[in-house]
Amino acid sequence: MEFINLVLEWLNNNKEWLFSGLGIVAFGCFRIIWNWLRKPKQYDEIFEDYYLKFIEAVFNKLDIENYPLWTYYMAMDGNMMLETLQYNNLHDVRDMLSCAVPHKKYKKLDQLFANWAMIIEDLIIVLDSHLVMRGDSYLTFDRFYKVPNPNPNYHEDLVKFNKLCYLIIDLTLELTRMSNLILDIVRQKRPSFMAEVGTLAISHACFKSFKYRKQEITSTPYPGLREFLSLRSTRAAYMDKSVDLDIDNL
User: Fold this and answer.
1) Which of 24, 57, 147, 183 would you call most buried, defined as having the most Cβ atoms within 10 angstroms of its Cβ?
2) Average pLDDT score over residue span 143-155
3) How many domains does the chain have?
4) pLDDT-derived band at 4, boundaries 50, 70, 90
5) 84 and 29 in one domain?
6) Whole-angstrom Cα distance, residue 208 to residue 183?
7) Which neighbouring-strand residues pair with 132?
8) How far is Cα 232 from Cα 250, in angstroms, rounded to an integer?
9) Alpha helices (H) in the chain, listed in sequence order
10) How many CB atoms lie within 10 A of CB 167?
């Protein structure tokens, strides 16, 4: 507004120029800008009062500030460590997204919530297949190929173990892509939304991209676990190409 006041003062001191041909054109442009600035911005009650607060609650439950670190220890570290608190939070986020209240105006965002929940649900299913306690507050993925000892199916079980670990990585990458997509959508309306976290990534992961490509962005980019086995290798970042994992017998 200080700039507007300066312009008005200048025009008042240069009235002869104001009534020239160029001055009339400039004054017309000035009036358009002035009216636009004075026009009250439309308040989107549904987005501001529901979606924005809901998405912020989801990300807080995901511990977004520590997201790069806890996803690294869960998926990339090699020893698979997950705090029981974070494991419980994954369940809570899945339930929050599954129970989100839909609004006709934001149908695409509602569909993305359901797809986001599906990724987390499938990640939990894979984790639960061989999850065991490690200490009082941590969970880890059981190295089942070591039991019994000696294990007559050692090689076969080791291959399965590695495929499951790679699938956990790929599902975590998909979770990261979806989370970044939601952040990007919100920031189209609120550019400063969680600006401090920037683009989500996984610490120490040697991948260049943690986002969907333009052609991959739909209201349901994640197709479900069975189809994801073959689809994952088409993503910009993936760990495994295996399609022969028996997801009905993890």
Assistant:
1) 183
2) 93
3) 2
4) low
5) no
6) 18
7) 140
8) 18
9) 2-13, 15-18, 21-38, 45-46, 52-61, 67-71, 84-98, 107-128, 154-189, 225-231
10) 25
